[in-house]
Specification:
Elements lengths: L1 H21 L3 E5 L4 E5 L1 H12 L1 H17 L8 H19 L8 H30 L4 H38 L4 H5 L8 H26 L1
Antiparallel strand pairs: 1-2
Helix pairs in contact: 1-2, 1-3, 2-3, 2-4, 2-5, 2-6, 3-4, 4-5, 4-8, 5-6, 5-8
């Protein structure tokens, strides 16, 4: 148990560093209202979940991406929301990847986990874009245009993330399974939370995320 906890800490630290660096491999695209980006940070977030599971993947994704925001004056006030949205991507991807209920094809299973993890982030990100634009006083039309533009770049990022993370997972899975991370790579989910508890957790997460969006938006005013 102690070895597994230490391996988890190392894995989170390692993947958080990769998520942080991946965000610097980017192309910034001003859309007239916001600055959106095409980058490789999401690839590392998905890889963290695929390799090391839900909680580890979520923490690595959230910490690495939030640190990037903290070091960039443009995004610093968005760091709390970034942590939450990237955490959502990593944990959804990781929980599905390590699920005991699996598709017959491992490739299909891993691709599905990566795609759904990315979709979880896109929903959070587009929701933040739309709400923040309305709070800032922009018209509904402007908010929809900004959200639509971010949907395009988010979709590009999603395709890049899945195409990069899935091959990396299959390339790294076997070598890592013979290392200190063996237990993490081979584990399966054992959570027995009832659906009511899961619903409460999702609602609490949504409320905290909305609060983070409002905070970041008000700080920008």
């Amino acid at each position: 148990m102690k070895n597994k906890k230490l391996a988890s800490i190392i894995a989170v630290g390692l993947m958080a560093a990769l998520c942080f660096v991946g965000n610097y491999l980017q192309i910034k695209i001003p859309n007239g209202v916001l600055i959106t980006r095409i980058h490789f940070g999401n690839s590392m977030c998905l890889l963290a979940g695929l390799l090391f599971g839900g909680l580890n993947g979520g923490l690595a994704s959230g910490i690495g991406a939030a640190l990037y925001d903290v070091f960039d004056p443009v995004y610093i006030v968005s760091a709390p929301f970034t942590f939450l949205s990237k955490f959502a991507m990593g944990i959804v991807c990781g929980l599905l990847a390590k699920s005991q209920k699996r598709l017959k094809s491992e490739t299909a299973h891993i691709i599905t986990a990566a795609v759904l993890g990315q979709l979880a982030y896109i929903v959070c990100y587009l929701g933040k874009t739309f709400i923040s634009q309305l709070i800032l006083g922009y018209t509904l039309e402007t908010a929809l245009i900004a959200t639509g533009t971010n949907l395009i770049t988010s979709s590009v990022n999603a395709v890049i993330a899945v195409c990069v993370s899935v091959p990396l997972y299959f390339g790294l899975k076997k070598p890592l399974a013979s290392t200190y991370f063996k237990e993490l790579i081979n584990e399966r989910n054992t959570s027995k939370l009832k659906w009511q508890h899961k619903l409460l957790i999702c609602l609490a997460f949504a409320l905290v995320a909305i609060g983070a969006v409002i905070f970041a938006t008000l700080m920008k005013k």
